[in-house]
Structure formats: structure tokens, C-alpha cells
Design a protein that fits this description.
Elements: E1 2-7, H1 17-34, E2 38-41, H2 55-65, E3 70-77, H3 83-96, E4 101-106, H4 113-119, H5 123-128, H6 130-141, E5 159-164, H7 167-175, E6 179-183, H8 191-201, E7 213-221, H9 225-243, H10 254-259, H11 264-276, E8 278-280, H12 282-296, E9 300-304, H13 310-324
Parallel strand pairs: 1-2, 1-9, 2-3, 3-4, 4-5, 5-6, 6-7, 7-8, 7-9
Organism: Salicibibacter halophilus
Protein name: LLM class flavin-dependent oxidoreductase
GO molecular function: oxidoreductase activity, acting on paired donors, with incorporation or reduction of molecular oxygen
Length: about 325
């Protein structure tokens, strides 16, 4: 099984956005050293506490600081943009970093209604046209549009992936013969059923091509379950704060999270969110990851970890890699 990283560049309450973005670069370096297959940067707009609004810019920065780990947009929100420009950007990245670029495609707005209008006057219309947009983008990636090339044309094209949480997105990926990422960490849907929709619809784009499946999860691992649960408090309380329109200062410290008062309704919500995450020691994390992989017929598990301390985040990825990938890496300083 392969492991990968999904990073939102969360800003902790004691950080600047620049510091958070720099921690994303450092995380990519750690991931490369530990044997993670890829790191993908998310796209969000005007969301307090998240620093990455332009993942393609971050990929250039990370690519220059790493050597082998694959780099991806996870996802570029296609309804906001022209397919030609998206292809150009990723072709240039693939020219700079040969054989390392993934193009993750999504359809979410990535921000508020006001932000959506600021980005695009026709977002909803483009969402309805998503199948056509995907087809057009793939044609540009394959250089199949007459008289127009999304140059520079790299020797190794970006690998397209479609990200989603529904049977509709799974079928779309399968019909176009591209790999699929199921976002379990943000979905109430039944993952195995959705993945099977993808497999049933899969039609290879190229001879000999096989389906590819990644499942994205939220996980926090520490030396003990008790420590992991303590570290996870910051992420869980921050999610609750954001749902209330708070949390604009970023991920709270563990102490601030402990001190945050919760109503009975919020306590129920807290427990519900906790159940959606993997929180525990290395053995627990490995068992749950393996179960998710098996149930979803996944080739790869992509992990998103949000903590207050960058050191706790690195340690979580390290412990999971050592347990799941059976690496011989020693504790990073």
C-alpha cells in the first residue's frame, strides 16, 4: 500500500500565513524522506485559517525544495477556470518537475458565495457542464485540440485525477478513464459503494490502463492513544468554531481547545466529528488504515493531518509511515 499527504496549509493561532506555507514545504520534505508517494495542496478561497489559495504556486515552491515526491493540486476547482489555462499551468509544472505532477480536478466552490462570484460569474452553469469541462481538459493534456496547444508540452504529461464524494463524481471519473479520489474525510456517503460505481464505469483512456483509487482520510497519530486524542482537540474544536463562524485566529492551542466551552449539542457534534477521524497510536492507526484500504479496494491512502504544533503533525506522519510502510526511518530532529 502507498501512503500520501493532503495538505491544506492550516494556520495555527501563533503563526502567520507565510509560516504556515513554509511548514507545508517542510512537510513535503519530511514526506519524501519517509517514503510518502505524493503531496497534494488544496485550493481554498478567503477561508480564515487556511493559507493555500493557489496550490499551483505552492507546487513550484515545494518542487524546488524536493527531488522525488509527486506533487499535485488536490484539487484545482475546475468550474472556476478555463480548461486551457489549467492545462497550461500543469504542463509548465510537468516541464519543470518531470514525472512528478498530478492534476487533481474538483467541482466545489472552495469558499463563500461572495468569493465564488468574485472568481467566476458562471460557476453554477460550469458545474452543470463539468463532464464537458473534464473532457476538454483531457484533450488539452493529450494535445488533441486542433491549432491550439497548451504549451509547453512536457515529455511526461501530468496525471489526471478526479476528486469527489458522490456516485456522480465516481462515474464521471470512470467514464473518462481517469483515476479517482474518494474524500472520505468530508463525506457521509458509503465509500465502498461509490468506489464500486467508479470501477463499474471505468473505461481505459489508454491501452493497458488500470483504474486507480485513492481514499483520503483525516488522521492524527501519536505514541499513545491518550496523547493523540489530546493533540486532536485543537483540530476538532477548530472545526466546531468554524461552523459557528469563529476560528478566524486559526487552529487553537491544545490548552485553548481544552478551555473552550461546549454546549450539549456541540458535544454531540464533537463526538460525531471524532468518529470520522483516525485518532490513536501507531498500531491503531495502521489497523484502521488497512481496513479502509481493503473496504474501498484502494491502491493508496492519502492522509490529512491538522494540528496546532507543526512538530506534532510531522510526528504523526512519521509514526504512520514507520508502522504502515515498515520504514527504518529514525525520529526526525
Amino acid at each position: 500500500m502507498k501512503l500520501s499527504i493532503l495538505d491544506q496549509s492550516p494556520i495555527s493561532s501563533n503563526q502567520t500565513a507565510g509560516e504556515a506555507l513554509n511548514e507545508s514545504m517542510k512537510l513535503a520534505q519530511v514526506g519524501e524522506r519517509l517514503g510518502y508517494e505524493r503531496i497534494w495542496m488544496t485550493e481554498h478561497h478567503d477561508l480564515p485559517g487556511l493559507a493555500c489559495s493557489a496550490p499551483e504556486v505552492m507546487l513550484s515552491y515545494i518542487g524546488a525544495k524536493t527531488k522525488t515526491i509527486r506533487l499535485g493540486t488536490g484539487a484545482v476547482l475546475l468550474p472556476h477556470y478555463k480548461s486551457y489555462k489549467v492545462a497550461e499551468v500543469h504542463h509548465q509544472l510537468a516541464t519543470l518537475f518531470p514525472g512528478r505532477i498530478d492534476l487533481g480536478i474538483g467541482r466545489a466552490p472552495g469558499g463563500s458565495a461572495e468569493v465564488t462570484n468574485a472568481l467566476n460569474d458562471n460557476f453554477l452553469q460550469n458545474v452543470y457542464k463539468m463532464p464537458d469541462l473534464v473532457e476538454e481538459l483531457l484533450c488539452y493534456l493529450d494535445d488533441q485540440i486542433p491549432k491550439v496547444s497548451a504549451s509547453p508540452l512536457p515529455d511526461i504529461s501530468p496525471t489526471p485525477w478526479l476528486l469527489g464524494t458522490s456516485a456522480k463524481s465516481a462515474s464521471l471519473a470512470g467514464e473518462h478513464g481517469i483515476s479517482y479520489v474518494f474524500g472520505q474525510f468530508m463525506s457521509d456517503e458509503d465509500g465502498p459503494t461509490i468506489v464500486q460505481k467508479y470501477l463499474d464505469a471505468f473505461t481505459p483512456r489508454d491501452r493497458g490502463q488500470k483504474p486507480g483509487i485513492i481514499v483520503t482520510i483525516s488522521a492524527i497519530c501519536a505514541e499513545t492513544t491518550e496523547k493523540a486524542e489530546e493533540i486532536a482537540l485543537s483540530s476538532l474544536i477548530w472545526q466546531l468554531q468554524k461552523e459557528k463562524g469563529e476560528g478566524k485566529q486559526g487552529v487553537p492551542s491544545i490548552q485553548d481547545a481544552k478551555d473552550y466551552p461546549l454546549s450539549d449539542k456541540e458535544k454531540e457534534r464533537f463526538e460525531d466529528m471524532k468518529q470520522r477521524m483516525i485518532i490513536g497510536g501507531p498500531n491503531e492507526a495502521k489497523a484502521e488504515i488497512k481496513e479502509i484500504q481493503t473496504k474501498n479496494q484502494a491502491n493508496e491512502i492519502m492522509i490529512m493531518t491538522t494540528t496546532y504544533s507543526p512538530q506534532d503533525r510531522v510526528r504523526s506522519y512519521e509514526l504512520i509511515a514507520e508502522e504502515v510502510l515498515s520504514t527504518d526511518n529514525k525520529t526526525l530532529s
